[in-house]
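User: Hello, can you help with two protein structures?

Assistant: Certainly.
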Amino acid sequence: MATPPSREMAWQHLCAWTEGESLRRHARSVEIVLRAAAYHYGAGETDVEEWGLAGMLHDADYEKWPEEHPHKIVAWLRDRAQGEPTHERIAHAISAHYTQWGVPYDSLLDKALLACDELTGFIGACCLVRPEGISTLKPKSVKKKLKDKRFAASVERSEVFAGVEMLGVDLSEHIQFIIDALKPHADELGLQGSSHG
């Protein structure tokens, strides 16, 4: 039976397909948040690696093959699967992380990836324009920025709201959860704010 890719192997694969620092940082950010989400939203300790890999790899093919995203990374996971259910769960979650693709949301992981992906990127953008970055960021500020369509315009607000609704969580509480997950990694992720150069 095939084993799921190790974190090291998955990261090497991501880096082979993704040269841009910002997309690598997004992959790492969503990995961190999904690992925390496995505990926070009740999946459990046994699912932490699986959820983390889904977060890390969800955009792995976007830089090289934007028109085929996410089919390349999904195919890579399924080619390795050989009946291993972990691969399929990760592949399915990645294939569903945008509502317009029409893929059903079958598992808690599917819903969590949708709910965390765009919002994690948006929170990162909020940090970049604040002198203190994530250290003083509050959900109220994030929600205010969400209403400003000109700020981080590439973030699809409809996806943020769809994910939160599907996961069945309060938006403010979910924002706070993501902030709390990212905060210990602020230096690594470049979330210290504009006063840190």
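That covers the first. Now for the second protein you mentioned:
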Amino acid sequence: SAQEILDRATTAANAASSVTVKGGITQGSETVNLDMQLGKDAADGTIEVKGVQVEIRAVGGKAYFKLSGEGFAKIVGQNDNPEVAKAISSLLGDKWLQVPQGSDSGGLGGLDNFAQKDSLIKGILDPSGDVSVKGTGDVNGTPVVFLESTDGSGTLAIQTVGEPYPVQIKGDGKDGSGQIDFTDWNAPVDVTAPTDVLDRSEEHTSELQSR
């Protein structure tokens, strides 16, 4: 059944040691573009949200972010407060910011979730409703079976050779659109923690808030 195929694909994806996830998702007026290499305990890549590009690394249970000061102010919603935006720009702009994975990311709205392979896979492969088999074909030369959400919100391509890994997902519903490709399953992920890192602490957060 379609649900069994989806369950097997999810199991295979979770068991894989790594994957590269690349593409874009649009929901309403918000578009998120990502190009991430995700391992079990490490990640490296970029995402673009609200028109701001964010560099992300994750290793050793810690997530690291870097973006411009103006970009940081835009993401945390402080553009309407020039003093706070200036403080953020001078303190955090173009510096690596370290946060514990699973935290609120210092106002970055949980962007560290994009650096966590299994949670990202779960979010992407969780359909809004039931699924049905749409047919077979190929994506970039890989034989696949297509699963379609019964509400018409998207189509998932799962390879039919080797492990049943997801190959591509397309959103074509009114609530979301875009395309994400999955490649390089089980490729090595070599990530080094950045140097000159600014550690996000309670004292640092209080300093920003006082400004």
